[in-house]
Write a structure and sequence with these properties.
Layout (H helix, E strand, L loop, with lengths): L8 H7 L3 H4 L13 H19 L16
Length: 70
């Protein structure tokens, strides 16, 4: 779920990982472990909102997820 399919050279250089090492990894593998649950909730809410728009549904967006500094 939430797999990293591609990245640009700058991102690869910043991570210092080869394409093979990062290819098809979960996006959450690149998130600080204590923050993963929160980031996953943000991603899920965003995807649900996009799906609702694409499907033409008229309904409230999922409950907002507050994003604050660490």
């Amino acid at each position: 779920k939430h797999r990293l399919r591609q990245s640009n050279a700058s991102w690869d250089s910043l991570l210092g990982w080869s394409q093979e090492r990062r290819q098809d990894r979960s996006f959450l593998d690149f998130v600080d472990p204590p923050q993963r649950e929160r980031v996953a909730a943000i991603i899920e809410a965003g995807l649900a909102a996009v799906a609702a728009i694409v499907n033409g549904e008229i309904k409230p967006l999922p409950q907002a997820v507050e994003v604050t500094g660490s």
